[in-house]
Amino acid sequence: MKSALAQGEKGYDHNNLRHVVITASCFALVISTVAVALRLWCRRITRTKVFLDDYLIIVALVFEYGITIAGVVLLYNGLGTHIIYLSPEQLVVYMKTLATGAFLYPLCITFVKLSILALYKRIFSIRPMMLASNAVGCIVILWCFGVCLIGAVTCIPFKKLWEPTLPGGCINLAQFYYGLQIPNILTDAIILVLPMKAVWNLQVPRSQKVMLSGIFLIGITTLAFDIVRLVVMIQLSEAGSDITYNQVPASVWTCIEPMMGITAACLSNMRPIFTMLPRPAWRQNLSWRKNAVSLPSSDRSKSMEQKQDIQSTTVSDSSTVTLADYLFTRLQQLGVKSIFGVPGDFNLRLLDYVEPSGLHWVGTCNELNAAYAADGYARLAGLSAIITTFGVGELSAINGIAGAYAERAPVVHIVGTPPRSSQESRALVHHTFADGEYRRFAAMHAHVTIAQTNLYDPRTVPDQIDSVLQQALLHNRPIYIEIPDDMPGVLVSAANLTTTTIKRPAAPTTESESSVLTRVADRIYTAKQPLILVDGESRAMGIVDDVQTLVRETSWPTFTTVSGKGLVDEHEPNVYGNYAGRLGDPNYKTYFDESDLILEIGQHHTDTNTLIFQTIPERATSITFTDTAVRIGDDTYRDLSPAFVTRLVHTLDFARIPKPANPPSRTEVPAQTLSPTGRITQKDFYRRVNSLLRPGDVVLTETGTASYGGRDFKLPRGTRLFGAITWLSIGYMLPATLGAGLAQRERNPDTPTRAVLFIGDGSLQMTVQEISTMIKEKLDVVIFLINNEGYTIERAIHGRKQSYNDVTRWRHHLTADFFGAEDGHGAKNSFTANNWAELDEVLQREEIQNGKGLRWVEVFMEKEDVEGLLKVILDKQIAAEKA
């Protein structure tokens, strides 16, 4: 009896087959885990986000682990051993565990297939592929649901699986396996051939099409294993009752098939790893880098809908990426995390790549506001980007780009232009002047950007992008990039992404540099009444930290210009704040005029920054540092980069630097006793709210009375202030608050950050829509609205009684609710102040001090209440009226 049983019902020798299952399970688990880990590592090294297809394959791996765990339980309860050697208790556990396979296996396979389909949708964004992928995905989900449902009723009652003596019945296993595997095989076949048409529509040599097809056909091994598993399962259904022994082949293939699916799904995502590997000699002549991939131009007779169906693909070999991915990867490498803009019909294909690349898309209400927001973002992050559409979009933004040029904010203006076929045929498309001329708008931007490029030829795209981005960093000014509508998905060389770093090039050391350093140091060591004047272009020069060191170590009296405010720590004992010349403290002016050495750093000599040119130092007593030169008296030494200041700071012997014998006495403005019911005034308002500011805030003061009042702030350490300087485009600061607030939050993700905006009611009406974007982005912003019934700055200049300086009165307390704040937020966080008592009460409220989201304070002031230079100008107007 024992001898007969030892042979098994199919004539097996009594060899324990557990080692076969253990080997297969371990192999499958290790390979699957390594494949998914390498896939995620590729995301990390390319600095791209984890996509939906990545998450789906992770879920598939979890179910693969479940299959393996079930296999371990089966092994401990007899899998691989003849059934006669098992106890009844082991058989019960065995059959219960076996039942889980009807759920774990189809769920694992389903998520593998959904991952592949999600990948297709991501890289082939054409409408037919999207529809086909969705349809196949629905079939796969329905198949999974059906298999799990049938698995749950394999026997009725279900308990009959492990207690066969119970009354009831079970389904025909052979029919079940056919129903399980045949739809599985068919959907695998469909998924394999699904991308072939898109690949073979590419305008590339046949050999490259074959290679691309091969990448997707790697999964054919999974299809083969599907068929093998079906055969094995049918054989199992026909085998005898020695189920624990006969189950071994089926268990092996149940582990191996999902492993192959997971691995095949991951291989096409491992391009960065293959890029690192040495290329065999036989592949050198097959390098795709020599052939940029583009799509066939659509016939002009096709409708726009048909054109949208003909798109390029991001499928590439190890040395190529799409144009869009190259550009967006470069931006991320340079610190850009958010990109602003408005969709338009010539940039839509480009926008498809923004969020998949890992960038955060910030859609603004119009292109001008997008440019303003990008300007504010760039001043904190060092670089920003905006995407607009050809003609109408880019011209809407051009005012903001011009402002960024004037005040040195490096904004990358990316414009989606009509397809190359339209431009070459001079087609009379929309957003043009209907004359076939496509270069006018680029010519306009040439005057307000430091560099321009048109990404028209895939062979030169990477170098073009790198060149203009370097110009943006070098000059801290905007650049202009045109991308034809048929170019975002074109393949370009990826070599530069890993071999070339974009950075501000260092200026070569000139023969005169050492002598200039010595001359500057000698002047510093012998100065008797020196001071430091920090101007706004110190930020653009990238030397703010060096300037702070110079200020702290010399202990010299230090002043800032209007645009330099906030660039040095105002809590240093030798920092006196803003220098206003004859409009400011007389003691400061006397010291300034009598100084024998003024170190002027980052000069910006515009009328508004120098208060009508009266704060510019005399040449004879000043040394001026710019980003290209150093001027000592009347001598100018050119080709010296901002790094000259860094070298100077590291060269100076601070112990030899004399301390000023008679620094200017600091004039402290005494606290004013103000009537609680008195009208709020410009003179005292900004000092009153100063206590609200805290370290890490970004403070913005709009063109007009706020820009003058903000100069009175004593800023906490680590606080940045943006004030209106030169371009003075009314309405700029509100969208700039959006951009600056986002940049500040991205730079300090673990620290609460806040933007505080001071803006007039006239300026607000220019760009108020972006409050909705602030709310959508969940920014913490406090807005002080100065309600003085219109354009007070314009009244001061001219027409103080004219109606054209009036604006329509708005119900400002409804602003937050109107622009989409959560129900109740606006009422709880909107306040008004008509007098000092009401203002003090508002400033102490918890919502203002530590609240979240948008907070709103409307402050009422007289329409002709101005200070500083504006008051001088207004007084002259009044005097002229009386004359």
Automatic annotation (TrEMBL):
Keywords attached to this Swiss-Prot or TrEMBL record, sorted alphabetically, are: Decarboxylase, Lyase, Magnesium, Membrane, Metal-binding, Thiamine pyrophosphate, Transmembrane, Transmembrane helix
| Any single GO CC term annotated in Swiss-Prot or TrEMBL for this entry | cytosol
GO process terms (BP): aromatic amino acid family catabolic process to alcohol via Ehrlich pathway
GO function term, MF aspect, one: pyruvate decarboxylase activity
Q: Where in the numbering of this chain does the Thiamine pyrophosphate enzyme N-terminal TPP-binding domain appear? A: 322-430
Report the EC number(s), separated by commas if there are several: 4.1.1.1
A Pfam short name: TPP_enzyme_N
Tell me yes or no: is Metal-binding among this UniProt entry's keywords: yes
Sequence intervals crossing the membrane: 20-42, 54-78, 98-120, 132-156, 176-194, 215-236
Q: Superkingdom of this entry's organism?
A: Eukaryota
PANTHER family this protein is in? PYRUVATE DECARBOXYLASE
Q: This protein is called what?
A: Pyruvate decarboxylase
